[in-house]
Amino acid sequence: METRGIEQMFDFQRLPNDALILVLLLLYSPIGLCLMLLRIFIGVHVFLVSCALPDSLLRRFIVRVMCSVLGMHVRQNNPRLRDRNAKLYVCNHVTQFDHNIINLLTSCNTPLLEGSAGFVCWARGFMELGTVVSSRAELAETLRRYCSASEALPLLLFPEEDTTNGRAGLLKFSSWPFSIVDSVQPVALWVKRPFLAVNTPDSSWLTELLWTFFVPFTVYQVRWLPTVSRQEGDSHQDFANKVQELLATELGVVSTQITKADKAEHIKRKRHTVTQTANSNLGARHRTVTLGFMAPSSSAEDPRVSRMAQQVKEVLPDIPISVITRDILRTNCVDTTITNLLESTEEFHTEVSGGAASGPARSHSSSSSSASASAPAPAIKPTAKSFGKSPIERHMSLQERKEALYEYARRRYIEKHGLSQEDL
After folding, report:
1. What ranges does the record list as Low complexity composition bias (predicted)?
2. Fewer Cβ neighbours under 10 Å: the N or C end of the chain?
3. C-alpha–C-alpha distance, residues 64 and 51, integer Å
């Protein structure tokens, strides 16, 4: 499958970068705030109406019209393709309210996979399972029993298990939803909004709701696709991949191997980078200004930097202390510096080898010490010289660096303390 950069699949900032749009948004802000307050008041009435009326075509029509007043405009294509006998709908995931939008078009239930049950779960339109499930296999078995009842409403599931911006690609579909029944109906969902991103990874559902009330409108377009059945011999993952490719083609995006876990790891890495940058700017501003001209002796002025540099030196003894100090001042983190230097191991070995080449011009004693200095360091498997094109390549590169670091540190510890393999 084709894989796009993970950065393209998520909007990590709410506001646009275009200066003209920012000015227009600033001028719109007083109107947006008034609109948000008015819609909060109307939204309470929409909630009460949806609770008071029984589930029917009339109720869905009334609530859909009232949601249009709230700025949530719902459109659907090919409604005749909706299979009234389908037990499971699968849809791409864009916002926190996708299940509510589909519920305005047809009656269906979406189980709450994460978070606590209770009033908030019920008020948001999720179905409570009634039992605590500890694994996806147990959840699939519970939903399989639910679908076996003839009077049960269809299920609506999101195999991506997390949201994207809907513009670049689909997260890898989990296989467990496709183990519930042998036939599913795919549902393609587009979400468009002026000025602002439709979601950001760090926002809660309540924050997303307030932004929805703030903007003039948000358009949800739903397209029903023909029912897809599992072919004989297909595994659950094969079935999931087939539906994922079908939905990606319909949406005009790519079908990726990026998972929910990859998204969480990427967000965690971005937060760590932002925190490091903020701490560096606040606590070491004068050092940042002179970073490119920092002399090795300047680390002695800061005992903390010197101590961190020595920790790195114990793990990577062949790297010059000046290089370690320079990277410590930039990253302010021992682990990050070790990772950066591991990526540049070949460069430093080249420098050491080059210094050893001039050894014959020295005396016999100095050439002896030069030969000792040019002895090859313990093997560390270098990573790729270029940034991986896919999340899989980048993950393998990171894993290789970690394994090389752990193995090298282990050997250094054994040699330093005179231990044997059996002692560990």
Report:
1. 353-378
2. C
3. 14
Percent of the chain with pLDDT over 90: 42
Average pLDDT over residues 156-177: 93
Tell me: the pLDDT tens digits for 23-42?
999 999 999 999 999 999 99
Using alpha carbons only, what angle is made at residue 2 by residues 386 and 10, rounded to the nearest 5 degrees? 80
* Token output for 121: 């779960």
**pTM of the complete model:** 0.64
Instruction: For residue 200, give the 3-state DSSP assignment.
Output: coil
Residue length of the chain: 424
* Phi, psi angles (nearest 5°) of residue 235: -80, 175
Compute how many other C-beta atoms are within 10 angstroms of the C-beta atom of residue 286. 7
Q: Which long-range contacts (CB under 8 A, 24 or more apart) does 329-332 make?
A: 329/284, 329/287, 329/288, 329/291, 329/294, 329/299, 329/305, 330/280, 330/288, 330/291, 331/276, 331/280, 332/276, 332/279, 332/280, 332/283, 332/284
Burial of 88 from C-beta contacts in 10 A (0-12 / 13-18 / 19+): buried
Q: How many CA atoms lie within 13 A of 50 on its CB side?
A: 21
